[in-house]
Amino acid sequence: MVSAIDRADITGLILAGGRGSRMGGIDKGLQPWRGLPMAQQVLARLQPQVGPMLINANRNLDVYRTWGLPVLSDSPERDFAGPLAGFLAGLEVCTTPYLLTAPCDSPLLPPDLAARLGEALLAERARIALPRAGGRLQPVFCLMEAGLRDDLRAFVASGGSKIDLWTTRHPLAIVDFDDAHAFENINTQADLQRLEQTPSP
Ligand SMILES: Nc1nc2c(ncn2[C@@H]2O[C@H](COP(=O)(O)OP(=O)(O)OP(=O)(O)O)[C@@H](O)[C@H]2O)c(=O)[nH]1
Ligand SMILES: [Mg+2]
C-alpha cells in the first residue's frame, strides 16, 4: 500500500508576491482570468488538496484579506527577494508538518499535486518534493517539511535566492507529471489571452 500524507497535515501557500514586470508591473494574482482573479483560480484548485491555506502577497493586502485567509508579506528587510522569501514567510507561520506552495500565475495546477508529491516524499524519505513536467522541474510548486524553517531562514539570510540551490541541499523527491499544460505559467498579457481560450481539464 502506498502511504499518503493526510491533507490536514499540509498547509497550502499561494505565492502572489512577485513584481509582475512582464505584465507591466501589475499584481498578477488579482488579474481576472476566466471570471475570477488568478490567485482565486489557484485557490479553488489547491484548497481541496490541503488543510489550512495562506496567501503570500506584497501589494494590495487589503484586497487579498477580503478572501478570508491569512495574508503574509515577505520580510521587509528584503525587497522582492523572489519566491524563496515567500516560502520562508509561509514556513514562519505554518503550524502543520508540511507546506505546499503554488504560484498565483499557474491556474491549471493538477488536482492530484499534493497527493502525488506527498506519496513520493514519504516513499523516498525525502524532505522536499517537486514536480517535473515537460522535462522541466517546476520548483515553485514545492512540498516541503515545515522543519526546514530554520535552514531556509539561514539560507535566505546569507543571501540565497535561487530555489534550486536551496532544494538540492536536501533529500529531494521528483515526481513526473504527464500533463505539462497543468503547469502553464501566465507571465504576459499574451499568455493570459492564449490560456483564456485553451480548453482545460
Ligand atoms: N513572495 C515573493 N514571491 C515572488 C517574488 N518574486 C516572484 N514571486 C512569485 O514567484 C512565482 C513566480 O514568479 P515569476 O512569474 O517568475 O515572477 P513575477 O515577479 O510574478 O513576474 P515577473 O516580474 O514578470 O518575472 C509567482 O508566484 C510570484 O508571485 C518575491 O519577490 N516575493
Ligand atoms: Mg511566472
Provide a short characterization of the protein structure:
This protein is α/β, with parallel strands linked by helices. The protein has helices spanning 38-46, 61-65, 83-93, 113-123, 149-157, 163-167, 189-197; strands at residues 10-16, 32-33, 36-37, 53-57, 71-72, 98-103, 128-133, 136-137, 143-145, 172-177. The longest helix is centred in the middle third of the chain and has 11 residues, at 83-93.
Can you walk through the features of this model?
With 201 residues, the chain is of the alpha/beta class. The chain has a single domain, classed as Spore Coat Polysaccharide Biosynthesis Protein SpsA, Chain A (Alpha-Beta Complex). Helix content is 29%, strand content 20%. Strands 1, 4, 5, 6, 7, 8, 9 and 10 form an 8-stranded mixed β-sheet that branches. The longest helix has 11 residues. It is globular. The site of magnesium ion has 4 residues, from loops.
Overall geometry: globular
CATH class assignment: Alpha Beta
Q: CATH topology, what is it called?
A: Spore Coat Polysaccharide Biosynthesis Protein SpsA, Chain A
Number of strands: 10
- Termini separation comes to 28 Å
Mean model confidence by pLDDT: 94
Hetero groups in this structure are: guanosine-5'-triphosphate, magnesium ion
Which keywords apply here?
10 strands; alpha/beta; 201 residues; binds guanosine-5'-triphosphate; Spore Coat Polysaccharide Biosynthesis Protein SpsA, Chain A; 7 helices; binds magnesium ion
How is this fold's topology laid out?
Layout lengths: L9 E7 L15 E2 L2 E2 H9 L6 E5 L3 H5 L5 E2 L10 H11 L4 E6 L9 H11 L4 E6 L2 E2 L5 E3 L3 H9 L5 H5 L4 E6 L11 H9 L4
